[in-house]
Design brief:
It contains 15 helices and 18 strands. It has about 500 residues and is of the alpha+beta class. The strands form 3 sheets. Strands 1, 2, 3, 4, 5, 8, 9 and 14 form an 8-stranded antiparallel β-sheet that branches. The longest helix has 30 residues. It starts with 7 loop residues before the first strand and ends in a 5-residue tail after the last helix.
Length: about 500
């Protein structure tokens, strides 16, 4: 099978490695993974303002907000999401942030182990002791994800950890295209027996493709090495090897066929005006893409998949636009800080007078912006719907299943007559975890499907072949069960 679009993105540099596997079908899986990876690459540095784990977690949360913004401006991307597994090296510590079913493995002191935990439905069943690990491979819902970055959860829950590192240990990051085909023992064998990093990733990918991978395959292998510029601080190898391929091919034309996402302008435009605007947009997109390429060129790295496509060809212009805007904002911030520091070094300036009201004015503007953002955020939550439980009944909620302090961001719109206890265990768990819906109509369809499931549980097939035994003389007749009531009142 040939995949016509690569939804994977990955980046490996001197201090940062990240693999993201997008989802959302044709609409936006590649956009989600590319946007997230491009939003994280600026972390590839040895200097951070806060603890590396905190910085990594905050930036991933910011990337999640960016995905929500993309969906707000481009509704056709609704439902897109991405997994993220990222490593950030700082001195002799390695920070790990993870969400989804991409994986992180470690080979250290002769021991090979999976460090990340899959955020899938079957893994939850395994953790609860309701499913054996060997049964998970053939479970019909093994690919159902419980946690991802995307427009569903405003504050996704990340797995965070920090590890001490030593020269010579290896880490492997991969999308589920690899683990869907190769067992952990197969991955371990290749990682142990192959000294060359490029040969290692090539072998893993080739084995996966030979096994008929049903998905894109992305593999990154990182080896910790001594930094020649700082003898006591290990760093990643000069370029840790990474590769990304589709099932059989990755045709450039097919990957580039992902539809661009643009924002429409309101109001009439003449043909000449439209032509000028289109030319200006094309020029600005080229400038933004060039800015990202210059930023990436300033450090050794490997960038693959949809993220590479976004920067090299501009086929996903909204990703390059948002990422470039954030880079430009950071560059202006650093420039302003440098100018302020220079003024302090040269003494008092003639502008000392207006500096007295600059801070209050700035704080006022920030407060107003914060109020607008909060209002817009709350307004957005009221456009969402989901199906959950209310007093043991299946109900439709308007909003998102979150609270901010005492503020509940959702309310019950409709309560059905379906008891949650009447559902199968699988559907009951899904309802209790909430089922997101695109709109109110979609939520109604979900409730209808659950109603059919409840009827199937409560109404076993009636055996019409066996005649009813006549009561023996003198026997007391048992009270008759209201079968019609239990089965929805059907006659």
């Amino acid at each position: 099978m040939v995949r016509f679009k690569n939804d994977d993105s990955a980046y490996v540099g001197r201090y940062l490695a990240v693999v993201a596997d997008g989802m959302g079908g044709h609409a936006g899986g590649n956009v989600a993974s590319a946007s997230t990876v491009l939003d994280l690459v600026h972390l590839d540095s040895s200097v951070h303002e806060d603890e590396p784990l905190t910085v990594l977690a905050d930036e991933i949360q910011a990337a999640n907000s960016l995905l929500s913004e993309l969906v707000t401006t481009s509704p056709q991307l609704s439902g897109m999401g991405t997994t993220v597994t990222a490593l950030l090296l700082h001195e002799q510590r390695l920070a790990l942030a993870h969400i989804g079913d991409s994986r992180a493995y470690r080979l250290k002191d002769g021991r090979f182990e999976q460090i990340s935990i899959d955020h899938t439905f079957v893994q939850r069943l395994i953790d609860e002791g309701r499913l054996q690990p060997e049964e998970a491979e053939v479970h019909p819902h093994k690919n159902v994800l419980m946690r991802v970055l995307g427009d569903v959860d405003a504050s996704p829950e990340l797995d965070l950890a920090t590890f001490d590192v030593e020269p010579g240990e290896r880490w492997l990051l991969c999308s589920d295209g690899l683990t869907a085909v190769l067992r952990d023992s197969d991955i371990e064998g290749v990682l142990r027996s192959t000294s060359d990093l490029q040969e290692c990733v090539d072998t893993l990918v080739e084995l996966t493709l030979a096994g008929g991978s049903p998905d894109n395959v992305t593999v990154a292998v990182i080896e910790i090495a001594e930094d020649p510029d700082a003898a006591s601080a290990p760093a990643t190898a000069p370029l840790s090897e990474l590769t990304s391929r589709d099932n059989a091919y990755r045709p450039t034309a097919a990957v580039a066929a992902a539809p661009p996402v643009t924002e429409d302008e309101s109001g009439p435009r003449t043909e000449n005006t439209a032509a000028r605007d289109d030319a200006d947009d094309a020029e600005s997109e080229r400038e933004r893409a060039q800015l990202i390429r210059q930023d990436l060129a300033s450090r050794p790295h490997v960038l693959v998949g949809a993220a590479s496509l976004a920067t090299e060809t501009g086929e996903i212009p909204i990703v390059t636009k948002r990422s470039a805007e954030r880079r430009a904002a950071r560059m202006l911030t650093h420039k302003a800080e440098s100018e302020q520091q220079g003024e302090q070094e040269t003494g008092d300036s003639p502008r000392t007078g207006w500096k007295r009201w600059l801070l209050p004015a700035f704080l006022t503007v920030v407060a107003l912006l914060l109020a607008v953002v909060v209002w817009l955020g709350y307004t957005w939550t009221q456009t969402r719907y989901y199906v959950g439980s209310y007093e043991n009944r299946v109900a439709i909620y308007n909003g998102v299943s979150q609270t901010i302090g005492p503020i509940q961001l959702s309310h019950v719109t409709d309560v059905s007559d379906i008891p949650v206890d009447s559902l199968s265990e699988y559907h009951r768990n899904r309802v209790e975890d909430t089922l997101p819906a695109r709109d109110l109509e979609h939520a109604g369809e979900i409730v209808s499907e659950l109603r059919d499931t409840a009827k199937a549980v409560l109404c076993p097939p009636v055996n019409t072949d066996s005649p009813t035994a006549a009561p023996s003389p003198g026997a007391t007749a048992a009270p008759e069960t209201d079968q019609n009531s239990a089965c929805g009142g059907e006659q």
